[in-house]
Write a structure and sequence with these properties.
The protein is of the alpha/beta class and about 300 residues long. The protein has helices spanning about 25-35, 55-60, 80-90, 115-140, 165-185, 200-205, 220-240, 245-255, 270-280, 285-295, and strands at about 15-20, 40-50, 70-75, 95-100, 145-150, 190-195, 265. Bound molecules: NADPH dihydro-nicotinamide-adenine-dinucleotide phosphate and retinal. Retinal binds next to helix 7 and helix 10. This is Hydroxysteroid 17-beta dehydrogenase 1.
Length: about 300
Amino acid sequence: MGWPRWPALPAMERTTVLITGCSSGIGLALAARLAADAARRFKVYATMRDLAKGERLLERLGGCCPDTLEVLQLDVTDPCSLAAAAQQLQGQRLDVLVCNAGVGLMGPLETCSDQAMKTLFDVNLFGAVRTIQAFLPAMKSRRAGRIIVSSSIGGLQGLPFNAVYCASKFAVEGLCESLAIVLRPFNIHLTLVECGPVHTSFLANLQRPDPEGSEMRGLDAETRELYRRYLWHCQSIFRDAAQEVEEVLPVFLEAIGSPSPPLRCASTHLLAPLWRLRLSNPDGSAYVRAMHDFVFGGGEASGDQP
Ligand SMILES: NC(=O)C1=CN([C@@H]2O[C@H](COP(=O)(O)OP(=O)(O)OC[C@H]3O[C@@H](n4cnc5c(N)ncnc54)[C@H](OP(=O)(O)O)[C@@H]3O)[C@@H](O)[C@H]2O)C=CC1
Ligand SMILES: CC1=C(/C=C/C(C)=C/C=C/C(C)=C/C=O)C(C)(C)CCC1
């Protein structure tokens, strides 16, 4: 990326980066990577909603907190928590904001509770909106800054049994694409990072019904069978093709360091053929057919096992 490797930068010249969702996964790894930078080019504000989970980040950094790191409490669903975090940064320049906090929700639409859907949108969409709102005015007045948002391949194309999650990430895409247009004259670059499956706590944390559980009982047998097949695919994709967190970090580092980052950066080409098919057929029918046939084998739900 063309940055000097040595000597260490004086504190005032460091690039300041605030990241949400640093208790695990991508946020934790990115915060650790930037805070441990050999030339100390960054000052990292690693935020998390539950500070009791901060130990994992410190462990990653060898047990002590370097002067390149500050851990702050920030729950993106809580305006008071956001205001307090913004207050702690007041008077300091924020160069890069990484909206990374996110949660998942999987399963037949009929099983998604009102509460689960509201929580999902509150974190994935409104959480990103609130976080950007908290830090944008200062970036605008400086006419400089970068905003990086953890979106998903599920923000670009519909995935079976991920309807509400994809809806939240499609919304994030619309939010950011619209905002990027207005931010151009302010010299603020906005980048959406499109990850595919990554080995993090995401899968363990996501809400999903057990295919044999009580939430599925009222559901028709055909949908239950389709869901069972999807889970089978999902498991094998996570086993065989999911990326390690370290593999997706270069995409974030590029978005932080590049003089002119694009609106979208993908960490994986896993779904690229289906994505191209979706773009080449704007009415969407070819995509729906191809995804259906790929996942469910083109036959009836009660047909052969995958
Ligand atoms: N892993 C994957 O396969 C993919 C993930 N993504 C996206 O990447 C991002 C990071 O996820 P990933 O690292 O994989 O998953 P993790 O579950 O490991 O990390 C999610 C982070 O978000 C935090 N979080 C959840 N709710 C809130 C909240 N209300 N306020 C602040 N933080 C919150 C979690 O904190 P806590 O520990 O307190 O719950 C955690 O730190 C998400 O936006 C996700 O949608 C995109 C594509 C694929
Ligand atoms: C690759 C692939 C599949 C699996 C995709 C998965 C498992 C995506 C997970 C995405 C996540 C976790 C996004 C988080 O934001 C399908 C649909 C089975 C069939 C088509 C090819």
